[in-house]
Amino acid sequence: MLSYQHMYHAGNLADVHKHGLLAWILAYLTAKDKPLSYIETHAGRALYDLSSEAATRTGEAARGITRAAGFFADDHPYSTALARIRAANGPESYPGSPLIACTMLRAQDRLHLAELHPAEHEALRLSLRGYKAKCHHQDGFDLAHSLLPPTPRRGVLLIDPSYEIKSDFNDIPRHIARWHKAWNVGVICLWYPVLTSGAERAMVRRLRAEHADAFCHEVRFPPARPGHGMVGSGFFVINPPWGLHDEAARLASHFADLAG
């Protein structure tokens, strides 16, 4: 359960989809001068080097952010966050969602980030040492159950597991039902892979049935390499901010062009 390391996949097309929508949501929420809570269940190390052996071995960033940067205007929240992070860390750096959140959120906001993998947690802590984020070395589902509803009550929960633990597909709807009941005003975001095996489909059907007002967005893309099982990315949002549907539709049109 501790084998997954995102350094091999950072900046792939699923990251582009997930981070583009997340940055848009954070920009929308921070437009109001009210404090936020940001909670992430599977944070990873927050900062990645796309010139590293791990990143170049898979080539996923080359097929991802390198090709897809033009999906976003220079003033898009994702573009501006990426530009700030690369100005500070070098042109081959790429942020995970914790660093995007730290870059976009404000002094009055509160960030709680969970990472169970010891090496990834240490890298997360070091990457964010200049930010006011609390990095928890614990199971992210347990952390969310302990914090919700958070203070401040307004905010975002991002659930982004690797799904290497296959029971996640069965367990996540149960977790989300509890979190939404405890925190009915929270923007609850779940990323999931779209797989050739279809392993995610029962989870998505259950979530749609239990949260009829939520927003579910999927994009498809070519596999990163022959035989690779992920052929798309999904983002499920409870309490979606106004305008997210339009932003997602704009992004989907670019992914459709990429898929040919």
Mean pLDDT level: 94
Global geometry? globular
Characterize the largest beta sheet: strand count, sense, and whether it forms a barrel.
Answer: 7 strands, mixed
Distance between the termini: 36 Å
Strand composition percent: 15-25%
Low-pLDDT stretches are none
- Structural class call reads alpha/beta
Please provide the count of β strands.
9
Q: Could you tell me the radius of gyration in angstroms?
A: 17 Å
Oligomer: single chain
Main sheet strand line-up = 5-4-1-6-7-9-8
Fold topology:
Elements (H helix, E strand, L loop, with lengths): L12 H18 L6 E4 L6 E3 L3 H6 L6 H4 L8 H13 L3 E3 L1 H8 L5 E5 L3 H10 L5 E4 L3 H8 L7 E5 L8 H15 L4 E9 L5 H10 L4 E6 L9 E9 L5 H16 L1
Parallel strand pairs: 1-4, 1-6, 4-5, 6-7
Antiparallel strand pairs: 2-3, 7-9, 8-9
Helix pairs in contact: 1-4, 1-5, 1-10, 4-5, 8-9
Key features of this structure:
single chain; 260 residues; alpha/beta; 10 helices; 42% helix; globular
Write a structural description.
The protein has 260 residues and is α/β, with parallel strands linked by helices. The chain has ten helices and nine strands. The protein has helices at 13-30, 53-58, 65-68, 77-89, 97-104, 118-127, 140-147, 168-182, 201-210, 244-259; strands spanning 37-40, 47-49, 93-95, 110-114, 133-136, 155-159, 187-195, 215-220, 230-238. The chain has a seven-stranded mixed beta sheet, sandwiched between helices. Helix 6 links the parallel strand 4 and strand 5 (133-136). Helix 1 (13-30) runs antiparallel to helix 10 (244-259) and helix 8 (168-182) packs parallel to helix 9 (201-210). The longest helix is centred in the first third of the chain and has 18 residues, at 13-30. The N and C termini lie far apart (36 Å). The mean pLDDT is 94.
